[in-house]
Specification:
It contains three helices and three strands. The protein has 115 residues and is α+β, with helices and mostly antiparallel strands. The chain folds into two domains: 57 residues, no CATH class; 55 residues, no CATH class. The protein has a three-stranded antiparallel beta sheet with strand order 1-2-3, covered by helices on one side. It is elongated and about 75 Å long.
C-alpha cells in the first residue's frame, strides 16, 4: 500500500515534502499533526457511466423526434450496460494515457516532531 501525507487533511503529497514543510515552518522540537492516507490510483473505468451515456443518447433522440423516442433504449439490460462501459474503458486504456491523479482515502492523524 502506498501512502500520501498532508498537513491539513486536504492537500496531499509525499512524506518527504510534508517533513520538509514542517521543518521549514516550525522550531525544532515542535510537535505537528500530519495526516496519512491510502493513495488510491484512478483508472478510466472509474469515470465511465453507461447510464449517463444512454441517457445522453435518449435526450438527443427526444430532442430530435420528441415523444416518439420516449422508450428508446429502455430495453438495454444491466449486463449490456456493463459491456458498453467495458468497451469504452478498454478503448481508453489502449488509446489514452492513464489518469495521473489519485484519491486519498482513510486518513488518520499522526504526529511528527520538527527538526
Amino acid at each position: 500500500m502506498e501512502y500520501v501525507y498532508s498537513l491539513n487533511d486536504e492537500g496531499w503529497g509525499d512524506f518527504e515534502d510534508v517533513v520538509n514543510d514542517v521543518n521549514e515552518n516550525n522550531e525544532a522540537g515542535t510537535i505537528v499533526d500530519v495526516y496519512k492516507a491510502e493513495k488510491q490510483p484512478q483508472s478510466h473505468s472509474d469515470f465511465i457511466s453507461a447510464d449517463r451515456i444512454i441517457e445522453d443518447i435518449q435526450e438527443d433522440a427526444f430532442g430530435t423526434v420528441g415523444e416518439f423516442a420516449e422508450d428508446y433504449l429502455e430495453d438495454v439490460s444491466e449486463s449490456d450496460k456493463e459491456t458498453l462501459a467495458a468497451i469504452i474503458a478498454n478503448w481508453l486504456d489502449s488509446t489514452a494515457a492513464d489518469p495521473r491523479f489519485w484519491l486519498a482515502a482513510n486518513s488518520t492523524k499522526e504526529t511528527i516532531i520538527a527538526e
